[in-house]
Amino acid sequence: MDIERKIRQLKNDQKKVDKSIDRNKLKFIEEIKNGLGDDIKNGIKKTEPKEIKEEPQTKGLFRNIKQWILNLSKK
């Protein structure tokens, strides 16, 4: 059964991707804990506040963002 083999391969690929995402997420969190967060805070403090302009949000953009958030929350 070629289809079953392909399904197993896709599941294994998904596991590899999930592990990679988890590893990179932990790495990013550690970088922030070890001082990268201070660099970001100092950079924000140094910039002058700019006027925020509200722009109309398109329906397509909202759907894309909503779908992206839903996909992230599933993992």
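(the above was protein one; protein two follows)
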Amino acid sequence: MAVALPLILGLATYVGIHFLEPRLAITWSYAHLHRYTLLPWLGIGLLATLPILVSFAWQWPAGERPVTRWPTGRIVAAFVLLWLALWALGTAFPAPTFSIDVVYFTNAVKSGTGQNARWYLLLWFFEGLANLVRPALSWLGVIRGTNAAFSAVALLALAGAARRLGQSRREAAAITLLGWSAFGILQLVMGYTDIYPFPLAVTAVYCWLALGVIAGEVHPLWPSLVAVLAPFWYVGLVLLAPSLLVVVVEAGRGAHGSLRLAVAAVVALAAAGLATVPGFGRPFAWGAFLARAAADSEAELGLSPTSSLLPPDFMLSTRHAGEVAHTVLLVDGIGWLLLLVPGAALLLHSAGRTRDGKAACLGLLVVPYFAYVIAMDPIFGSYADWDLFSYGAVVTSLLGGYAFVSWGRRCPRAFAPLLGLALAAAGVHLLARLNALDVGMQQHLLESPYHLVAPSAG
């Protein structure tokens, strides 16, 4: 009851704000379930049926079997089918466009002249690909087709990471569904015409590889390569780096651990050096890259005149606390609830016992991500710049789901209906917000205004 009761209360509160839509100072994380008459009834249907259906499904004997590796051919086939399906779905029902970042990115790909060190290799890749396939494919087709491929990779890699967290097929399925139903993940795979499907894919792949190292199935070279190269593609992916500490510790065990780490370090260092060649004409031009990234951060447009981070007084304000709360509720409210309730129980249960490398690795992804949510200045406001923090749903859903199923092993009778309730609550949230960020936009922009400040003269 120490976990079940607060979890039920948390889920009830989460569902309640969606159905009641209280007029609080900030509303954009839960509105607008009532924009269509059918949506509340669909939400009630999910709440009434999913706990029962999941409870029945949890009893299936096949779900108790241990997870097994998928053959490579099956993974490739799944990727192709998922890619084409997401491309078609994103073309038919694209995510609404209301941020100037989307305009900037699409114009950069269309013109082939965009430069921004925050997206350095990603822009280079998109512009090269557009030049290669035009005029057979429009510039918008290039973005949607490529982002659909990134999205397919993200969903499959997240499922692969879940398989490395679960002890059985049903546990892996539970973690996968909790991740796939997170708004921060599902909205990005719906024809999103910005850069964020790429960091979503990279984060999911990194989690899959890092967990593979901990399981003894993957060479530490692979997550190391992803972690050192990712910031050259999107600078925010530097947040992957702290979790490499766990990868190093886990990979260093055994007779050949030091050799494996040395190989990983040398190859990753060389790859990071070569990453500067396309844009700077020489390897190891890290100083030039950092200088350009700082210049392109447009720090002078935010609330701080000297940094892309928020001023300390604003970070400590009640307004910012509200915006952070609504950001995490929008992106992955269920994942955060599972982190706070079963996650705390898992931490207390494992304190002083055997080390859990999986939880430690994911924890060193969640902590810097949350610090990023608190400190980073979304210059278009937290509402309009929510996607700046979207791909963190990968790590919150994985660690929250892992904590949840770990608790469920000790309380199996309560777990299945609570899993159904959590998935139903996630479904209610998707009914309220998926492809609906432009609904009530003017009201929400007043609630969470832009942070743009005109640069000072001279």
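Reviewer note on protein two: Residues 4-447 form one domain.
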